[in-house]
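Sharing a chain and its predicted structure for anyone who wants a worked example. Both blocks are below, sequence first, tokens second.
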Amino acid sequence: MKRELQTLTVEEYMQTVSDLRFPNRSEMREFGKVYNGKGDVYIKIRVELLSDFGNPMTFVMSFHYAEIPFGAEMFPYRRQ
């Protein structure tokens, strides 16, 4: 999973969402990737600063197949 997070690009970014369950936490970022041409996968992450030294920690919130196929309009930074 760590390798997958390191390969995410701005073109795979979909949107930023607030955490309704934990409103004091940082926002989450949603990305979308296609794996092996077989299915669209959502990846939702949160980046938090966890220490006084400002060391960032990335939490993977979800990693699952999309129920609806991705459309080009879902990716604001993807080159058309």
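Comments welcome. The longest strand covers residues 39-49.
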